[in-house]
Amino acid sequence: MKKKLLSVVLCTAMLVPTLAGCGGGAEAPAETPAETPAAEAPAVEEASETEDAPAAEADSSGEAVTLTVLAGQSTTDAGIEEMIDEALAKAYPNITLEWECVDWGNDFQPKMQQYMQSGLPDIMIGKAQDVATYAPQGILGEIDAQYLDRGLDAARQNVTIDGKTYGLVYNALYQGVYYNKDMFAENGWSVPKTQAELQAIIDDCNAKGIKPFASHMVDTWSIGNVTMQFAMNDVFNNDPTWGDKFRAGEVSFADDKMMQTAYQYNKLIYDNTYPETFSTEQTDCDAKMVMGEAAMKVSGSWSIQNFLDIDESFNFGIFPFPNQTGDSKLIFEPNITIMTSAESEHQDAINCVLDVLTGDKELAVEIYDYTKTAPMLKDVTPTFTNPSQADIDEYAANNMIVDVTLGNNQLVWGGFQEENAKDIAAWLQGDISFEDCLAASDARVDASSAN
Amino acid sequence: MEKKLEKQYFAMVFPGFVIFTIGLIIPLMLAVRYSVTSWDGMSKVKEFVGLQNYINLCKDADFRSAWWFTIKFTIGNTIIQNVLALLFAVALDSGIKAQKLYRTAFFVPCLISSIIVGFVWLKMFSNVLPEINELLGTNINFLLFGSGRTVLAGLLIANNWQWIGYWMLIYLAGLQSVPADLYEAAKVDGAGPISRFFNITIPMLAPAITICVVGITTGSLKVYDLLVASTKGGPGRASTSVIYQTYTTAINGRQYGYGSAMSVTLVLALLLVAVIQVKGLKSKEVQA
Asked: Searching chain B, which residue's CA lies closest to the CA of residue A28?
């Protein structure tokens, strides 16, 4: 009898917390942001008030504040947190940042999901496409116009939802085909604009024993990234709402020839790169490019840091991967994007951080020089030598640049693009057919949108 | 007196029970609950979908592929690690010189994090071993992580390199507890080394075999960190385990409900395998 009683007591002890956990743990925090839309949140109202009283004054005599920061970083970004800490300590010694730096591709979204249950950090640093994912949840604070005005107007479009801007875009990456300028000059190759011209260079490379492309397909993100580059120029530039149509059942991967062409370009790269691409990491790949073992690499600005670290005299340029119609545009990606919590109790201190980030030009130049990225702040010019800058300027002057956030909002990265990339890899390896690869993308339609 | 003892037992069991409940039972219950919803992990709405997630799992080719890889990885590990660990243990127990040195050398890899082991073997297969090819002028394919056909072999090498020493120590402890009288009596009866091994060593090691087989099997079914650091589940999906698939589906793919259904099936499979193995192997155990 006593044993039975003991069993009942222990079972009750187990069930009570279990039911308690089921009943409230996960739901209660999630309700908070939904009940308090960003526009109505007190923190945002405070932020608006700081327009009258500059942030510097608002917190200069305040007590010590520690702000939590979740930084989803690209490979280029690790290390900028120390620069920001240093600049902040000079301007606002009472404000301290408590950093949590994670890899954007793998860990930013899981961390955000975790914090959406337990309470968001005061500041979140991600990419522009994250605004479309998290702003509709009502958890992001609106960025004060006085800080947004210090940035380029072009940076605002894809971080603005219903007229409210929830992200401050700090820098940008350019994506396309990096090419060895010296090698191109020695072999008499000019920048290709059409597939035929690109094929001619590939053929000449192969004839001369030069590997046309450097690639690192062991990184699935790399396959996903270049596929979106291809899709931008062959699909989204012609049809900016392709993703919406896909979800509406009007188009599909199995039927759309242009999307299939974008997938097929991966095969072109795979057939013209070194056999160990599925065992090669980015650093090794970039080294091969710098050492002259390959002529081109479909990549982004994140490779510049490696290129120049390996050989600061490496002479490279960039061109958009040629599309079927010969009118490819260079891909532009807003990268470091600062978002704030709508629920933060320290909005004044957050504004001080935004003040330093957008107002301290010395810090901005230091960050741009370190990350080897393009500025998105007005009147700030990095001092690092970027051999591909002349090409970028030319495409910009000819209005031949397109923001990839469009494609990333139409077909999201997490759960869709990155899963499709795995199927593309399996197809390239011969494990599945091209038709199966397309069918797998179609079957993933429910995961293609952020909301 | 009995009442006092019961109180003492209760006091001793209770803290562990609370920790176990908070750390395991509640998350498990929540996973079961989420598995019947279409929750995306972010929104407050957790729409009840009944068994739809489990029905979808049966049709999910990626999930089946993940299970197939996990099963192959588990079988490979269980056989290779048990056989080699036992052979190494027997060799070290035979009184060879520098026994302690070998024991330490075999054991050290299991002190390293699986993440580090993944990186080490990625570099080994991609950079270090191909250099040997160049030095020797040979053409051996060391790029095991680079193809779906060889990635399993590469991962088995990495995983076995890490864990054989650990299981070897368990076998070694078992061997050292076998009474020498049994071997002497068998020798007197004319039993040779092989006969002694199969008729004395193996039966006397049955408890250790139970521990090793169950430990290796359940550990292999849960493989994740090694994959994250080395193959990232690729090439393609060639080395995507059930846990890896569950994580990417639930977290990166924002399908928390569906991912929870995956994790529930894994827990059930782990329980089933462990129960079958323990029941089967326990019946073979003998006492000296």
From this structure: B44
